[in-house]
Amino acid sequence: MKPTAFHPVARLLHWSMAFLILAMLLIGVSMVTDLSVRHPVLVSLHKITGLALLVLIVARIIVRLSIPHPPLPQDLPAFQRLAAGASHLLLYGLMLAMPLLGWAMLSAGGYPRPFGLPAIVPHDLQLYAVLRQAHGWGGYLLFATVLVHVGAALMHAWVRRDGVLRSMWPGSKAD
Description:
By secondary structure, this protein is an all-alpha fold. It has a single domain (8-168), classed as Fumarate Reductase Cytochrome B subunit (Up-down Bundle), CATH 1.20.950.20. The chain has helices spanning 8-33, 39-66, 78-109, 125-160, 164-168. The relative contact order is 0.16. InterPro entries: Cyt_b561_bac/Ni-Hgenase, Cytochrome_b561_oxidase, Di-haem_cyt_TM. Residues 6-171 form the Cytochrome b561 bacterial/Ni-hydrogenase domain.
């Protein structure tokens, strides 16, 4: 029998990551627009939060693959099922790729990494430039994907009223 709500661990990971991703997007925008003395603080905060998100997304993928989750509503049109699956794959891919791109970018640029993490690519300034641009564009794509995700959740809550948002909402009762 399929559950009607996500497991509490899945919900905790979801909402923790939602908060941290929103914070990261705001920090990232602030970093590239702020040339003041606060900039190093923002960079350090961005690095540490990115590392935390990397750990959380790995845990989230493990939970997603190992704990049953509620099915989509039976009456959801096929194209919306396909869109939901594709958007979740994109979202998970970006949540995994963004911290890895950041880590690779720091490695290629020869910058210090949090907690003395090893370099994952060689020091190469041309590679750094490519990774920095990829990290920036990835941030925009992640932001757009999050907006679509939130829009879909609100559509399920306010238009379809089918319990999809409620199944991930904190305090939902899992079966």
